[in-house]
Give the backbone structure.
Amino acid sequence: MKKTVTRLADGRELIYFDARDDTVRTAVDPRPLAPVASASEIRHDPLLDEHVAIASHRQGRTYHPPADSCPLCPATGDRHGEIPADAYDVAVFENRFPSLAGDTGRCEVVCFTSDHTASFADLTEDRAALVLAAWTDRTAALAARPGVRQVYCFENRGTEIGVTLAHPHGQIYAFPFTAPRTATMLRTAAAHRARTGRNLFDDVLARERAGERVVLAGEHWTAFVPYAARWPYEVHLYPHTRVPDLTALGDAARAELPGLYLELLRRFDRLFGPGAPPTPYIAAWHQAPADSRAEFALHLELFTVRRASGKLKYLAGTESGMGAFMNDVSPESAADRLREVASS
């Protein structure tokens, strides 16, 4: 892998990750862009003890442009977007419309491929491994920045999720705080350790590996539908050896992950039968905060808001108003279905 760091016209960082070590990146961003002016502010909710980012400047961000104006596609002729090269493998750049910026953190965009019509599930294992290398590199770099507490790599896929750009891409957020869900997990893990002397994540993984909801298992990873799944189709993916984040993965686990992850995504696209539109999903990498690495376990949570063909799981009054989820699909039947639709 070769990493090349450059700058866009407005000073934002652009990083190419190329499979070939001899790749040379010299393209210059010709756009007359003014420096990004963000108004991100972090406010604290005293009732929930949670932080909220206020980012009103994002109201003007790019919204569903036509394919020939996609800002994530390579440069062609007179058309120039965020990536000035005429082709690329994986590219990462600072978001032009960040929710977090400056003293409040950082937001980056990860482009998985220059092919506008592809999806992550269409990638080869080698390309997926390159994305994993990019996630790992950015996790290390962002975690080292002053004020960053937690790094979050994720992909939103599909208009039903709220995606505003169709090009296959994900994002990375560097939070100046510990995310609320992570904080809850850490409190629960601490109570479990005090009560049992064991690690909560280890116990959850052991229980699920021995149960009926395993979807896919390798030598170093297991994917399962959790016992108390909130979403119609939800899969958690854990390495068998607990590590705090992507940077700590061993070589064997790192090598196995791309193929197994691609298989999971391809099964998601088969959930609702032939001819169904691509399954919308969120793929979220949960990584340890900087000050709580000992007890936390790296894991992926992958879920879709689609509950049946042509039907979405909307967050209604109980979920949105009270945070009390009601799932219409039993985790056991979801696991059965995900095993049925194996792509091989």
